[in-house]
C-alpha cells in the first residue's frame, strides 16, 4: 500500500490514469484476501478419497513386496532357505503398517480441521 | 496384428515405429511409447519457452499458464521439502510436467499412455530414490543413516526398529512407482472396457444402439475423471519427491 492514491484512487475509469497505475495496490489487496494456507496443502486436502486409499494400499503392499524380496535374496546368498524370507516378510508387514501410519498422519496434517471440531490435545507421538 | 483391437489390453501394446534391430539379443527401436515421451517433452518445452519469449509485464494467457505452473511447483517445494531444497526445482518441475503431459496426451485417441508401463514409472522413482540417497550421503555423510534410527528409542528395541525402517525406506520407490502406474493402467482399462461395450452394443441393431448410450455416457464421464486422475497423480508424484528430498536435508527425525 505504498501507492498513496491506491486504495481510494480511480478504478481505471477516470482519465489521466494509466490502467496499470493502481495495479500494485489491487494485487496487494487481492493477496490479502487470499486464504493464508499454502496452495499445495489445500490442493492436497482436496484429494479424492479413492486416491488416498490407493496411496495407502500402495504404501502397504510395497513394503511387503520389498520385505519378501529382501528375504528371498538373503536366502539365496546365505543358503538359509526359508528362514530369512519368513523373518523379512514379517518385518515387511511391520514396515507396511509404519508406512500407512506415516502417510495417514501426513494426510491428517495436510487436511484442514473441519469447523466445529472440539479442541482436543494432539497425542501424536511421531 | 491379428489380435482384437477392442480388447482392453490392446492399447498398451508397444509397437516399433523405427526399428533399430537387435544388439546382443536385445531389441532396440523407436516405439510408440518413446514417441509419446518425446511429444510430451516437446510440449512442455514449447509451453514454457514460446509464451515467455516476449516477457510481457502483463502476461498473455499462455504466459500466465506457464508462470502459474512455475509458481505452483515452487510453492510445492517450499511447503513440502523446505526452501533450501529449491536447488532441486529443475528435477521436481521436470518430473511433474512430464508426468502431467504424458498422462494427458495419453488420453488422446490413438496415442499411448507412457505411465502405463511400470518400467517407466519405476525408472522415474529410482531416479528420485538415488538422488535422495546420494545427495543425502554427500550432504550429511554417515549422519544420513540416522534416518533409520528414530530418536528416543530404548536400546533393546533398536535391533527390531532399524530393519523395519530400512525396509520402509527401500519400499519408497516401489510404492512411488506402483501408485502412478496402477492408477494410469486401471483408468485406461476401465475406459477401454466401456468403449468396447459401446462398439459391441451398437453392432446388435437398433435396440443395441439405444442401449449403447449408457456406456457411452460412462466413457465420457470417465474421460473427465481420467483428466483429474492424471493431474492428481502427477501432483502426488511430485509431492512425494519433495517429501523424500526433505529427508535428504533432515535425516534426523
Summary tags:
heterodimer; A: 126 residues; mainly alpha; 4 helices; elongated; disordered N terminus; B: 253 residues
Task: Tell me about this structure.
The complex is a heterodimer of chains A (126) and B (253). In chain A, helix 3 runs antiparallel to helix 4. Chain A is elongated, with a radius of gyration of 27 Å. Chain A has 126 residues and is mainly alpha-helical. By secondary structure, chain B is mostly helical. Chain B is built from 7 helices and 2 strands; from the N terminus they run ββααααααα. In chain B, strands 1-2 form a two-stranded antiparallel sheet. In chain B, a hairpin with a 2-residue loop joins strand 1 and strand 2. In chain B, helix 3 packs antiparallel against helix 7 and helix 4 runs antiparallel to helix 5. The longest helix of chain B is centred in the C-terminal third of the chain and has 48 residues. Chain B is globular, with a radius of gyration of 22 Å. The N and C termini of chain B lie far apart (55 Å). The relative contact order of chain B is 0.14. The interface between A and B is medium-sized, with 30 and 30 residues.
Largest sheet: spatial strand order of chain B: 1-2
Give the low-confidence spans of chain A: 1-16, 36-46
Our estimate of the beta-strand percent of chain A is under 5%
Average pLDDT for all residues of chain B? 87
Question: Can I get a quick summary?
Answer:
The complex is a heterodimer of chains A (126) and B (253). Chain A has 126 residues and is an all-alpha fold. Helices cover 60% and strands 0% of the residues of chain A.
Give the helix/strand layout:
The complex is a heterodimer of chains A (126) and B (253).
Chain A: H1 23-33, H2 39-45, H3 49-78, H4 83-110
Helix pairs in contact in A: 3-4
Chain B: E1 16-23, E2 26-31, H1 32-49, H2 61-80, H3 89-105, H4 118-140, H5 155-202, H6 206-211, H7 213-249
Antiparallel strand pairs in B: 1-2
Helix pairs in contact in B: 1-3, 2-3, 2-7, 3-7, 4-5, 4-7, 5-7
Amino acid at each position: 500500500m505504498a501507492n498513496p492514491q491506491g486504495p481510494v484512487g480511480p478504478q481505471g475509469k477516470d482519465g489521466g490514469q494509466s490502467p496499470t497505475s493502481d495495479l500494485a495496490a489491487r494485487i496487494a489487496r487481492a493477496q490479502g484476501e487470499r486464504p493464508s494456507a499454502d496452495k499445495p496443502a489445500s490442493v492436497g486436502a482436496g484429494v479424492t478419497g479413492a486416491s488416498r486409499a490407493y496411496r495407502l494400499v500402495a504404501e502397504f503392499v510395497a513394503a511387503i513386496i520389498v520385505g519378501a524380496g529382501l528375504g528371498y535374496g538373503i536366502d539365496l546368498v546365505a543358503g538359509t532357505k526359508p528362514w530369512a524370507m519368513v523373518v523379512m516378510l514379517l518385518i515387511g508387514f511391520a514396515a507396511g503398517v509404519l508406512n500407512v501410519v506415516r502417510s495417514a498422519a501426513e494426510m491428517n496434517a495436510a487436511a484442514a480441521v473441519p469447523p466445529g471440531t472440539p479442541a482436543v490435545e494432539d497425542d501424536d507421538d511421531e | 496384428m491379428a489380435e482384437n483391437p477392442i480388447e482392453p489390453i490392446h492399447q498398451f501394446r508397444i509397437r516399433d515405429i523405427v526399428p533399430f534391430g537387435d544388439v546382443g539379443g536385445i531389441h532396440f527401436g523407436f516405439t510408440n511409447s518413446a514417441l509419446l515421451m518425446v511429444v510430451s517433452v516437446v510440449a512442455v518445452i514449447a509451453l514454457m519457452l514460446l509464451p515467455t519469449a516476449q516477457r510481457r509485464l502483463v502476461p498473455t494467457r499462455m504466459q500466465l499458464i506457464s508462470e502459474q505452473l512455475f509458481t505452483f511447483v515452487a510453492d510445492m517445494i517450499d511447503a513440502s521439502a523446505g526452501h533450501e531444497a529449491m536447488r532441486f526445482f529443475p528435477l521436481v518441475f521436470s518430473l511433474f510436467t512430464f508426468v502431467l503431459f504424458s498422462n494427458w496426451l495419453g488420453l488422446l485417441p490413438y496415442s499411448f499412455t507412457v505411465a502405463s508401463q511400470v518400467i517407466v514409472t519405476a525408472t522415474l522413482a529410482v531416479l528420485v530414490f538415488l538422488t535422495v540417497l546420494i545427495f543425502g550421503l554427500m550432504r550429511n555423510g554417515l549422519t544420513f543413516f540416522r534416518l533409520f534410527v528414530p530418536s528416543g528409542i530404548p536400546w533393546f528395541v533398536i535391533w527390531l526398529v532399524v530393519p523395519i525402517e530400512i525396509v520402509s525406506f527401500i519400499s519408497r520407490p516401489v510404492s512411488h512407482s506402483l501408485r502412478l502406474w496402477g492408477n494410469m493402467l486401471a483408468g485406461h482399462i476401465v475406459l477401454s472396457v466401456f468403449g468396447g461395450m459401446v462398439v459391441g452394443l451398437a453392432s446388435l441393431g437398433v435396440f443395441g444402439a439405444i442401449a449403447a448410450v449408457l456406456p457411452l455416457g460412462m466413457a465420457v464421464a470417465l474421460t473427465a475423471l481420467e483428466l483429474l486422475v492424471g493431474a492428481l497423480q502427477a501432483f502426488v508424484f511430485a509431492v512425494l519427491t519433495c517429501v523424500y528430498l526433505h529427508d535428504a536435508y533432515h535425516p534426523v527425525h
